[in-house]
Write a structure and sequence with these properties.
alpha/beta, Rossmann fold, five-stranded mixed β-sheet, globular
Length: about 425
Amino acid sequence: MRLQKLIPVRQRFPVRRLPDVREGTLEAMRGASWTSAVKPGARIAVGVGSRGISNIAVMAKAVVDFWKERGCQPFIIPVMGSHGGASAEGQAHVLEHYGISEATMGFPVVSSLDVVQIGQTPEGIAVSMDKQAYESDGVMLLSRVKWHTSFEGKLESGVHKMMAIGLGKWEGAKRYHAFALRLGMEPVIRAVGKVVLDTGRMLGGLAILEDAHHNTAEVHALGAQGMAEQEEVLLERTKSWKAGLPFSEIDLLIIDEMGKNISGTGNDTKVINRGLLGRNTLPGVVKIQRVFTRDLTPESGGNATGIGLCDVISDQLYSKIDFPATWVNAFTSSILLSTMCPPHFADDRTCVEKIIMTCGKLDSYECSIARIRNSMELGEFEISEALLPEIANNPDVEIIGEPRELAYDARGMLPPVTAGALAG
C-alpha cells in the first residue's frame, strides 16, 4: 500500500514551567489566609485523584509537610469516584503508581469507599462524602484545573468537580452522573459542591495549572470562601494555553497511547474532536476522519474508557483491557458509548491498511496522516507531506527531520514515538 512519507515537526508553545514546584506549593500554602486559621493538632484529609498530573507526588509531599510544619496530622485519601476498579485497594494502587504511598509521603494513605450522607441539593440529589474525609477536622484537595472532555462550562475539571465526583466515591459518582444526563454536569457539580461546602469540612484546595508542555505552571491555594469564582478565572486562563493540532483536516490520526492518566476519555476529546455527539462536532478543532490508537498506558490499570471514540485499535491495546474495570467506569458515568470496542487487529500495519481505506479517498496515497505520542503531548509529532502547506507560514511549527516511510518492524509494529527522538 502506497502511503505518504512522514515528516517530524515541532510545535512551539510558551513555556510556563514553575522553577521549583515544591517551593511554589509551600509558598502558595503559606500565603493563604485560610491555612493559618487551622489549629495545631487538626487531622487533615488531603485528597489526591487519578489523573496524570505532573509533579503530583512532589506537590502532595509539600502539602503534607506543610501541615506537619503547622503541627497538624495530615493523611492522604484517594479521591477518584469509580477509578481503580471502584475498589479501595485499586485506588490506593493508582496513587502508588504516581509515587504516593505511606513510604514516600511519610504519612498514612487511607483508602476506603465508605461514605456518609451529608444532605440534599434543591434538585433532590442526595450528597455523599468520603467517610474518612467527613470525620477529619478538615479536607483539602489537590486538583488540576482544566477543560473537561465531555462538557463545556465556567467550571469544568478542577477542585469543584473533584469535591463532588471524587469525594462522593463510587456511590456518589454514579448518582451525580445519572442526574447530569438530565441537568448537565456543571449544574450538578455546583449544586453538590455547595452541599459539601456547607458542611464546613472543606478547608480548600490546591488548584494546579499546567502549560501546553504539561509542565506545572501555577499552583493556587484556594480557600472554601469564594472557591467557585476563583476557579472560574483559573479555568479561563488554562483554556487559553490549550495545545491542539494546527490543521483544518487530517484523514488518519495515529495515536501511540491512550489512558486514564492522559484524559478521562483516554484520548482528549477536545484534541481528537470526538465526543458524545459524534465525530468532528467541535468548532475550531481539526476535523479527523479516522483515529487509530496503538496502546494503553500502564497507569490506566486496564481501564480503557474511550476506546469507543477510536475507529480501530491494535491487539496490543486490546490485550491490556480490563473490561470489568472499564465497564465499572462506563456504568458509573452513564456513558456507555465510550467503552464500545472498535475493530482490532494483530499488528499496526494491518490496522493502518484496513482503516485508511475508509477515509473517503480511493487512493491511499492521497490520505493525510499525523502521528502523535498521546493527546496530551503535542510538542513533537509526525505529519505526512499533504499537511506541509498548512504549516508553511506557521511560525510556531518547524520541521525537525527528513521525510521517512512508516517504519514497521518484522512483526508489523511501529516503534514508539518518544519525546526528543523524532529529530534523530
